Amino acid sequence: MSPEQLNRLKQAYKDIEGTALVKTLDDVMETGHRAALSAASSGIGLLRPELAQLWEGIRDAPSVQASVRARGVAADGSIYGIHKYENFDPGWAEAGIKWLENLHNRAPFSDQPAQIDLADPIKIAVVGDWGAGPGTPAMQVANLMQSIQPGCAIHLGDVYYAGSESEERENFLNLWPFPDCSFALNSNHEMYSGARGYFNTLLGNPAFSRQKRCSYFAMTNKHWLLMGLDSAYDADANNLYLTGKLGTSQLEFIKRTTETYGAGRKIMLFSHHEGLDINGKETSLYAEVVGAIGRPPEFWYWGHLHAAIGYANHKGMFGRCVGHGAIPFGDIVSLKSKPFVEFYESQSAHDAHCPERVLNGYLALSIDGARLTETFIAEDGSTRFQKIH
After folding, report:
1. Sign of the four-CA dihedral 142, 145, 149, 151
2. CB neighbours (10 Å) of residue 212?
3. Where are any strands of DSSP class E within the chain?
4. Which of 62, 90, 209, 330 is buried deepest, with most CB atoms within 10 A?
C-alpha cells in the first residue's frame, strides 16, 4: 500500500470512528485479514482480496503479502498469487479504500428505465467482469466479440479495481469495441466508488446512450422479453455489496414489465450477481426475482464469480455464469461431473505467467424467432459449449 493510499485509508476510517458502524466494519475487515493470512500460507480457503490489506493499514497487522507461501486455486476458482488480479495482488487495496471512502457517498439512482425494441433475428455478445484493462485477456476477448458482429453487446458489470471514473475510461471505454447499442450493468466493484464512474462516465458515453443513464432496462420483440437488472445499488454496503439485492423500484419494474410483456414470451434476465450460487443453490436474489415475475425466467445470465458455468435446467430456468471476461481464474474441480452443471470452463490457457489460469472468454447469444442458441467462446476462438433451445 502506497503512503498516499495509507493516508486515505486512515482518513476514511477516522470519518466513521465513533459511529455504530465501526464494530461491524472492524469485524468484516479483521475476519477478511485473518482468512487471507491462512490462505496465503496454505493455499486453501476463501477470502475477499478487497479486505486483505485494510486491517494491516488500520491496525498495523501482519503483512498478507509477506505471508504468501503457496500458489493454488480456491474453491471458487480464484488464484492465490501476488500478480495482477490474483488474490494477493496489492492493487485490491484500492478497492477496499474506495469502499470505505464511499460508504455513504453514492451517485443518484435513476428510476427511468429504457424500453427498447429488440430486433429479430439478432446476435448478442455477453461478457462479464471484463473491465481489467490493457495487458489482460480483455483485449483478445473484445476482438472475438467484435468478430461476430453482434446487434448489441451487454457487459454484466465489474470494472477494476473499484470502478472509478478513470478506471471506467482506461480499463473499459478505451478498449470497448462497440460504438453503439451497448448496455452495461452495475456491480459491487463499481459501487466501491459510489457508482459515480458507472453512472457518469460509463453510462454517459455515447455507446451506452440507449440505456438513458439508467442501470436497468427492458428489450422486447414478438417472442422475447429481456430485462437487465441492477443487483448492486441496493446490496448491503457493509458487506461490500457482495450479495445481490433489488430495491422496490426494480421489483415494481419487473412486475409491471412482466404483466405487460410477459404473456406468450420467453423471459431472459441479465444481472451482475448470481441467481444460483456456485453449487447450483438458489440465492436470495433468485427469490426476489422469481417472486416479482411469478415464475422462474427461462434464461438468466450473471457474472460476479470469475468463472464460466452452464447450469442444468433448474425449475425451468437455465442459469449461466459469464464472469470469465478477463480476470484470471482456475479449474473449479468441485464442479467436475456434478449433475447440476452442463458445462464449466476447465481448459488450461497455457499461460506461462499464470499456469493455473484457465481460458477466459464470453457468451454469444443468437436469437431467431423463438429459438435461442447459446455459445461459450474462449479467448483462443474455440467453441467451448453450445446449446440450442
Report:
1. negative
2. 14
3. 72-73, 79-80, 114-117, 122-127, 152-155, 182-184, 217-220, 224-228, 266-270, 299-302, 308-311, 318-322, 341-344, 361-368, 371-378, 383-388
4. 330
Cell of 185: 450493468
C-alpha cell at 161: 479495481
**SS3 label, residue 44:** coil
Q: Which three cell numbers stand for residue 17?
A: 470512528
Q: Where in the chain is the domain with CATH 3.60.21.10?
A: 114-388
Residue 46 Ramachandran class (φ > 0 left, ψ -120 to 50 alpha, else beta): beta
Neighbours of 143 (CB within 10 A): 12
Q: Coil, strand or helix: which one is 365?
A: strand
Extract the C-alpha cell encoding 128. 462479464
Secondary-structure class of domain 114-388 per CATH? alpha beta
What was the pLDDT predicted at 90? 85
Q: What is the pLDDT of residues 170-198, one digit of tens each?
A: 999 999 999 999 999 999 999 999 999 99
In the block, residue with C-alpha cell 448478442? 124
